[in-house]
Amino acid sequence: MQIRARRNLVGASRAELAELLAELDPHPFRAEQVYQWLSRRMAGDVDEMTNLPKALRQALAERAVVQDPEVIEVRRGNDGTAKFALSLADRVVIEAVAMPMEGHTTICLSSQTGCAVGCIFCVTGVLGAGRNLTGGEIFGQYRAILRREGLVGAPVNVVFMGMGEPLLNLPNVARAVELIAETVSPRRVTVSTSGIVPGIRKLAALERRPKLAVSLNATTQEQRERLMPIAAHWPLAELLDTLRSFPLERGRRITFEYVMLAGINDSDEDARRLPRLLRGIPAKVNLIPLNPDQRYLGELEAPDEQRISEFAGILAAAHVNVTVRWSKGREVAAACGQLRGQLTIRPPA
Ligand code: SF4
User: Fold this and answer.
1) Which atom of ligand 1 is the closest one to the Cα of 115?
2) CA–CA dist 146, 149 (Å, integer)
3) Distance, CA 248 to ligand 1 centroid (Å)?
4) Which of 15, 194, 226, 257 has a CA that sits 20 to 30 A from residue 55's CA?
5) Given the CA of residue 336, which atom of ligand 1 is nearest to it?
6) 29-64 pLDDT, tens digit each
7) Is 301 designated active site?
């Protein structure tokens, strides 16, 4: 007898569910019911889908499973930040983070199992490339965290700032964004990129566009190439031109992240160049003091607080909307640039 592998329903689109359900039930609305259970109510099992007839649930369970990445470790910081290690079906381990904020929780998701972009200030980048996550794996991280933390139905923001470059995996990120949009407005979802110009153009064409953040970190092409080797492929001038034509709804801005590195990109000249670069782009700048990590990031360190405030002061005086983001979750290595998928491969059980 041939045994058919059961497909994972997490990440399935409406059309894919319609095709599957059409084989099992004559009513077209069943697919929408299943879609709602998976994407809104975050059902963890076919059996939880109680408005489906029992016979249909049985038939569906014979063909399909509901399987999120498995949470294998949670580390909690004093500020409430939780870092999750999640094991995928091929036993690769990725990380995601939940940060309690005022009035909501921000969930930071990974889009790849490593990162080929190679930013020198980022642990994921130093550890190197990985594979793309599927749309189901990305959305499954989100579901797993909501379920585990009791956040189903609670206000959340979602940021793609975990492991990987989301715009090098745009089809799967777009699928996950579409599923997340069932519970979170795209206004509360942010995709952060190192500046992949073709990906930004594709993102601009999406009907339900998330917000865009760009990891800038430099004010000259030379400096940017030193910090982010990918800048050699998509030069600063081309990146900024592309951003000038990125469609923004009224009141929206592009966020520019600027990881501050002592003695490298924190001079007064940098602070004076930055507003000139951003001219013509509705922008806000997040200054992020580096989260040092001697093991992976060597001698790189953050400027002291006075230098950071002076830098921010120059930007503010030039009418740049600027905030300093003191990262949450430092003590559990959940802060920006600290995610690394720890074991990478989990030994067989
Ligand atoms: S900062 Fe982002 S794009 Fe750069 S190496 Fe790290 S994960 Fe990749």
Assistant:
1) 8
2) 5
3) 24
4) 15
5) 1
6) 999 999 999 999 999 999 999 999 999 999 999 999
7) no
